[in-house]
Amino acid sequence: MNLKRTIGLIAAASYLFLHVPLLVLIVFSFNSSRFTAWEGFSLKWYAAVLADERMLKATWNSLIIAFVSTIFAAAVGTLAAYGMWKKKAPVLEGSLYVSLITPEIVTGVSLLAFFQWLFHYMDVRLGMHTVILAHITFSIAYVVIVVAARLKTMDGTLEEAALDLGANHWEAFWRVTLPNLIPGVIAAALLAFTISFDDYVITAMVAGIDSETLPMVIYGMARKGVSPAVNAISAIIVVGIGVLIVASERLQHE
Amino acid sequence: MPPVLELRSVSKHFPTHVAVRDVSLTIDRGKLFALLGPSGCGKTTTLRMVAGFEIPTSGQVLLNGSDIAPLPPYERNVTTVFQNYALFPHLTAKQNIEFGLRRKGAPDLDQKVAQVLDLVQMKGKEERKPARLSGGEKQRIALARALVLEPDVLLLDEPLSALDPKLRKQVRSELKALQRRVGITFIIVTHDQEEAMMLADEVALMHKGVIAQLGTPEDIYLRPANRFVANFLGAVNWLGEFGVRPEAIRITRDLLPTGDRCRPASVETVMFLGNSFHVQAKLSDGRSVVTEVSRLEKPFAPAERVRVWWNQEDEIHLPPESA
Amino acid sequence: MNRLRFWTLVPARALNFLFFLVPMGIVVLYSLMTRGPYGGQAPPFNLDNYVRLADPLYLTILLRSFWIAGISTFFAMLLGFPLALFIANSGKSRSMYLNLVMLPFWTSFLVRTYAWMFLLRDTGLINSGLMALGVIREPLPMLYNDAAVVLGLVYGYLPFMVLPIYSTLEKLDPSLLEAAADLGATPWVSLWRVTVPLALPGIVAGSILVFIPCLGAYLTPDLLGGGKSVMIGNVVQNQFTTARDWPFGASLSLVLTGLVMVLLWLFVRKGGDKYL
Fold this sequence. Notes:
The complex is a heterotrimer.
Chain A: H1 3-28, H2 44-51, H3 53-83, H4 90-101, H5 104-118, H6 128-152, H7 157-164, H8 169-198, H9 201-206, H10 214-224, H11 229-253
Helix pairs in contact in A: 1-11, 2-11, 3-6, 3-8, 3-10, 4-6, 6-8, 7-8, 8-11
Chain B: E1 5-13, E2 18-27, E3 32-36, H1 43-51, E4 58-63, E5 66-67, E6 78-81, H2 93-104, H3 109-119, H4 135-147, E7 153-157, H5 165-182, E8 185-190, H6 193-199, E9 202-207, E10 210-215, H7 217-222, H8 227-233, E11 237-239, E12 242-244, E13 250-252, E14 262-272, E15 276-283, E16 288-294, E17 305-309, E18 316-317
Parallel strand pairs in B: 3-8, 3-9, 6-7, 7-8
Antiparallel strand pairs in B: 1-2, 1-4, 4-5, 9-10, 11-12, 12-18, 13-17, 14-15, 14-17, 15-16
Helix pairs in contact in B: 2-4, 3-4
Chain C: H1 3-31, E1 34-35, E2 41-42, H2 48-52, H3 56-88, H4 94-106, H5 109-120, H6 125-132, H7 146-171, H8 174-182, H9 187-215, H10 219-224, H11 232-240, H12 246-269
Antiparallel strand pairs in C: 1-2
């Protein structure tokens, strides 16, 4: 058996395995039938998505949550990665690692328990704000990892040069380190955005009645298992995120 | 007027080792001073303490007579040309040069930048980003960036090591000429003894965190304080209590009367080096000596019987290092 | 060093403490309490919830979770190693092939899981297609079983296997394979005697990286297992929602987290974090 051909065959099969399900999903979002037999091209499921108030509201919620939590997580995570750059912060680093690998369902129930406990003392409810706080917290670890990787490849003497030329620590960070970190920060923000936009498990635990997100709606519909409208919204998500990824790749390689 | 820079009993302890131990030295205004030594000798740590990147564990760093040891780098009028130049990649050459001036809020930016670009002969390339500059050009911009602030002392960390060997010799003489023109005190850190001797007015040779010898290049080359200094600055043929450098040993076919400074020998190996030969000859007591012979002389052949001789003033009298 | 560094760490420390460490602390506290008459938690404090974990019902689920995570890791390795090898050997197209692995990974996990439901369910594409072709008359039960869960997990976490293996293979000196060939090894022998041993750290790192999320999986067994293929994550969720036994759910959460942390510790100790 030819080794090269065998490897090539397995790789080809793997690529089909990775891409065919999503491609099929997208193709059938244009199917005019509500059943899984192809009957003809139609945009009616996209129209159905646009007419679905609940889905639109949930999409809007998801966008707000992802946007706000990304901005905060990117800022907080970038600062933290910078703080851990030249001198270790083992406690924070360890805690972030653990937060990263803790099963989502456990993070979700712990936040649920925490907020319930907090509500004994404060008059607040579950809602957008609790979701956003949860998302910021779990996104920080991702941002730190991506930005720290970028910092690792950065020349540490740049900052010394800035200090040497009369910049104080803050100016050195703001005018020299940060501008050189921007591609890493953008990549990190993008990762945080997609993770936040996609999250179901933690979100479902800490969301209130007025803060239903798109993944929560998709989850509900998927379980019931009927409408091809799910295919349509899925296709929109896949293409939307795909465009974001490609754009950021371009941006980073400039 | 106090000297521009003085170190008084400066030490730097790291958790794992002592990098600099009780170093004292004085550098006069306008001098080109070299900190020379093998890697790990403490020369870079010394430089970093002058720049402000390290704070001495003890001792004083006096700039124009006042102690700057505890000050951060941005509060001392000392600038550095980094080994890798550390040009800001997101800024153009011009913006790199302006960086320090802007931090100070200095007036007449354009005029100062133009002057210094002229000085380092980099007019016309100021809008380029560092990625589009050659190694030599990067070095000029790094120099310009540090010089434009008119520092009391300019520090250069292995300034020639990132250049290719051919360019290095050319830049070396340019650097010395530049220093003479601007009159600013330069301190150069280097591990290359030839570079230090050619460039510097005064050299401090460091070894294991202390200054092994301080003096002019002639001083330390001709009158080394100990065998480490003698060996670091160039090859020495050690003949018991004293040594003679290869270029000071003559080799001849003439049957000179033998004595303490003229001994019979037989040629062992002959190495052609282009502009000269290195001839290794064995003395009757079994020791070998290496001599440098001009290419213009008639070549020696292995096993040839010869005399080697030297003058008394070329002997370096130093006892063998005990442990 | 300087005050700036101190302040850069403050926001992350505060958020991580308040919204990760404190909630986990509350879970620890609850796990030592007892379920109240109307749900919730109340004293007395004891270890009963942990003793209850020894119940064969939960032990079985724990072992099942390990089994499913292990099988998924195995299949991910079976696909991931050749895939990584293929990418590493594809010269200038390396980054394109690598991006092709990563692209679906970046898109929604939920959507990707849903895509398999769309393919596998009774009225799904595969069954409809086979029935339309007359191959089968009754739909094949492909969804809501262990196989579907394993499929979903392999699909979801394959990149975690590919990336570390690829990064070890990428650094492999090609002259080693030339040397092996020169010494008489066939390509298969070189693969087994040179490439695999040298890629082993990457394979181990990848396996742990896949195993960890598989063990704690919730969404995949929930959607593709449909309550018939249950893992620990689903029991945790159930205890906090339908069953309303928070103290027991808390103890389960901690055991799950503890297991995952042991795996992470192994991973870091093996130096696996440098393959990320």
